[in-house]
Structure formats: structure tokens, C-alpha cells
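Lab notebook, bench 4. Still working through the backlog of constructs that have no structural model yet. Next entry is a single chain of 290 residues. Request: give me the C-alpha cells for it.
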Amino acid sequence: MELLRFTFAQIEAFACVCETGTLTQAAKKLKKDRTTVSELLDYLEVDLGYRLFDRSTRPLTLTPQGQLLYRQARLFLHEAEAFSRIARQIPDSIETHLTLCYDLFTPRALLLRLAEQLQAQHIQLDMIACERVQAEQWLDEGSVDVALFQAMNRSVNDHLHWRAVGSVSLAVYARKGYFAKQPASLLHLASRPQLMPFRDLPPSLAGRLRIADSLIHVNEISLLEGLLQAGAGWAFLPDHFTADRLEGVMRVNTEMGDNGLTHPLVALWKPGVVNGPLLAQVLAALEEEI
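Model written out:
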């Protein structure tokens, strides 16, 4: 490929003088001084080896060679303008892809709002439901980018960072009549099977969520809802589940009242997997939506 001997500024100055007829008008249009425009033309003509303008006329007139070259210059400038438009649009057209893990307690409406907000920022969000142990392993491996889970009142491993981004409210739900007397005491709760939406409950989380001696583990939402309706046990669930919308299921008043029935949500990530500005965008969106 032959090296280009001409600059964009030379071709632009040439076309502008062709269209305005004078160096002075071209300089105003290009926002350059007249001497600069004149030198651009002079150097272009030197490189080409022939004259582009008859400088004895006012306004300047093109030589035959200049007329032929002007058409090519105008085509070149149109292509350059198209290139510039495309170049400016590229950052807005490329989507960043992120993967977020969450558990059964994460509000689904929150996830939908988060995905919508990030999409508007050209960040595509994949969402995978799993338990926290699995999420921490995937974060360590770098196969997922961010996780959103209940706080566990313990430090995460040395490889991961976390930030509190909000909280969820919890309440007791059961089939109507499951507890004969309300408010239900802790003794009554402990004596009946508790539906637990986790397969493996870490000790720190068990201290907050486990009340009953007998647990029935079920981490699939529709199955948990079916067991609630069937009266197979009671469940300590987030309010955003709206479990009392289910036929025959109600929110149970307990002697605990609402005291202590909120639980923090934390975002987890492995430093270096997601670049700093992008991570800041995701965390800001989470904090805004929760």
C-alpha cells in the first residue's frame, strides 16, 4: 500500500477553498487563519506537482486538474464524515456482558429493574439463581461477576470483597389454621416443621432463619409454595414473595412481632474481574433500586 503524502487538513482546506472561492472565506469556515489555509494548499500543490487553482482570478478558479481532484476530495470528505459518525456511535452500540448470581430471597422485581437500568447503560445482565456457597465458588473462579445475597455475619474469603446494598423484610407464613393460636410463640414455631428454602444453611444464617427443630429443605419456589398451601410446614420468607397471595396461605403474627425481621443484602465480587468504573455502575444501580 502506497503511503499517503497528503493530510486530512490539506484535503479539507482544498475542498473548502473550492466551495467558498477565497482563502479568506475558507479560513473563516475552517476557523483557521488565512496563512495556515494558504500554506496547506501550497504544500498540497507541491506534493502533487501541479497547480489546483488559477490564482490570478478573483474568486479563485480551479484548474482542469483541480476540477477532477475536487470531486474526489468531496467523496473522501463524505466518507470521513461517515467514519466520524460511526466512530462516535461505537461506544453506545457495544454491550458489556455481566453475570449476576442471586438466591431465593432476592426480590425478583429488583432484579428486573436492575436489568432494565443496566440495559439502558449498554450492560447486558445474565442472572443465575443459586445458593451462596456455589456463588462464592464461581466468583473465585471468575465465571460470574457479581453476586447478591443475604449477609451472613461473617467475613467472606480473602479473595472476595463485599458491600451492603440494602435489606429484605422477613415474616412467618403458613396455611390458615396451621397455628391454632396467634400470636404464635417461638415454642409453637419450634414444634412444627419449618420449610427452609436453602439446601445447606451456613451456621451464621441458620442463627437467624432456623427456628424449628424439624426442617424440610426445598429451594424451588413453586414447590415451596405448594407445600405451604398443603400445610406441610411453615416458612420464614421475605415479604416480597407475597406468599399470602396464595390460596389458603396467610402471614402469621408471632410473639417476635416485626423486631429483627429484616436482613441485610450484600453484593459480592472478586477484585480485578470487573473493571472499577463498571463495578461502580452496577453497585450504584443496586443501591438505587433496593
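Notes after review: The first strand starts at residue 53 and ends at 54. The two ends are 57 Å apart (CA to CA). Flag for follow-up if needed.
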